[in-house]
Amino acid sequence: MAKIPLLGKTLSELGEIVKDLGMPKFSAGQIAGWLYDKKVATIDEMTNLSQKNRERLKETYEVGASSPVHEMRSADGTVKYLFRTPEGNYIESVYIPDGERATLCVSSQVGCKMNCMFCMTGKQGFSADLTAAQILNQIYSLPERDTLTNVVFMGMGEPMDNLDEVLRALEILTADYGYKWSPKRITVSTVGLRKGFERFLRESNCHLAVSLHSPFPAQRRTLMPAEKAFSITEMVEILHRYDFSKQRRLSFEYIVFKGVNDSLIYAKELVRLLRGLECRMNLIRFHAIPGVDLEGTDMDSMIAFRDYLTRHGLFATIRASRGEDIFAACGMLSTARQQAEKE
Ligand SMILES: C[S@@+](CC[C@H](N)C(=O)[O-])C[C@H]1O[C@@H](n2cnc3c(N)ncnc32)[C@H](O)[C@@H]1O
Ligand code: SF4
């Protein structure tokens, strides 16, 4: 029978495990230390547990870490890793070094249910939720794990659609018994789901990025079907009730599509919609995907758009596009691998 991973277990869950196995209560903290501080690969390395207890633990559990099965390196230093889950699904993580910073973009699901028009993962459809173990493994088993400064949930999947597991991973990354990271190092990106949105705001202190892409609900619905169930106007109303002026940051993601959402009326409406919110706007270049009739706007228009927003009180930046030579648009590598296996 397949063993259960210890990776991804919170301290209280480890407490239950050691209790069930008749091990001393304090072993939960010891196991957490071996996992999240020393990052061991096997239970045998947990040498302050007695030999008997290690054997007992090994009957049912394993550390559960697994290295990436494939990687693609970009000329700009970006590396895209492909991990295989025990069920045989493929997920992507993208490592993005940038001067002093090194950011990992992690996946929260295999595929996605949200079906955004411009997204390769959306086209792939939904296959499975990732467990906290599989989310954390992307960080745990990353070859560059010791250089990581930031994590963004901007890989495959919609984090709010798998919130229990995402919150479990966030707890482990930020807890004293876990990675001890400041929540300021972590950003969760979402299209916004009614179920989950406020829970995330209440239960986590990590930064929030909202994928906006159009300030007009009718148009946003055509780009992002999730708008039908939970409108951006309602989301903005809710966001006004939370404080983003201190440690926690709120940002909006906006892919600038040529002739679709890049003219002055869009910029004006964005300023109106977000007035009074402490936030910033990230303008994103569109990574073209096969079979989709959308095009990214040119750089001059993007700069003009950015400058209008910033002049009118909405601080905006243009996100550098990384790894274009390695299919960095999310979902492309795993889709290619799945296709290859089918052929
Ligand atoms: C892949 S999503 C994952 C997180 C979450 N599901 C969301 O949509 O915010 C991360 C970001 O990538 C953006 N994105 C998706 N497809 C893209 C593409 N083809 N080009 C540029 N950005 C894209 C999304 O809009 C979102 O802001
Ligand atoms: S953009 Fe995000 S929510 Fe939309 S399909 Fe892609 S992963 Fe899912």
UniProtKB/TrEMBL annotation:
Its EC number is 2.1.1.192. [4Fe-4S] cluster binds at residues 112, 116, 119. It comes from the Bacteria. Binds 1 [4Fe-4S] cluster. The cluster is coordinated with 3 cysteines and an exchangeable S-adenosyl-L-methionine. It catalyses: adenosine(2503) in 23S rRNA + 2 reduced [2Fe-2S]-[ferredoxin] + 2 S-adenosyl-L-methionine = 2-methyladenosine(2503) in 23S rRNA + 5'-deoxyadenosine + L-methionine + 2 oxidized [2Fe-2S]-[ferredoxin] + S-adenosyl-L-homocysteine; adenosine(37) in tRNA + 2 reduced [2Fe-2S]-[ferredoxin] + 2 S-adenosyl-L-methionine = 2-methyladenosine(37) in tRNA + 5'-deoxyadenosine + L-methionine + 2 oxidized [2Fe-2S]-[ferredoxin] + S-adenosyl-L-homocysteine. Keywords: 4Fe-4S, Cytoplasm, Disulfide bond, Iron, Iron-sulfur, Metal-binding, Methyltransferase, rRNA processing, S-adenosyl-L-methionine, Transferase, tRNA processing. The active site is at residues 92, 330. Residues 98-325 form the Radical SAM core domain. PROSITE patterns: RADICAL_SAM. S-adenosyl-L-methionine binds at residues 157-158, 189, 211-213, 287. InterPro entries: Aldolase_TIM, Methyltransferase_A, RlmN_N, RNA_MTrfase_RlmN, rRNA_lsu_MTrfase_RlmN/Cfr, rSAM, rSAM_sf. Its cofactor is [4Fe-4S] cluster. It is an enzyme of class 2 (transferase). It holds the Pfam family RlmN_N. Its main location: cytoplasm. It is found in: Cytoplasm. Reaction proceeds by a ping-pong mechanism involving intermediate methylation of a conserved cysteine residue. Belongs to the radical SAM superfamily. RlmN family. Specifically methylates position 2 of adenine 2503 in 23S rRNA and position 2 of adenine 37 in tRNAs. This is Probable dual-specificity RNA methyltransferase RlmN. It comes from Phocaeicola faecium. The gene is rlmN.
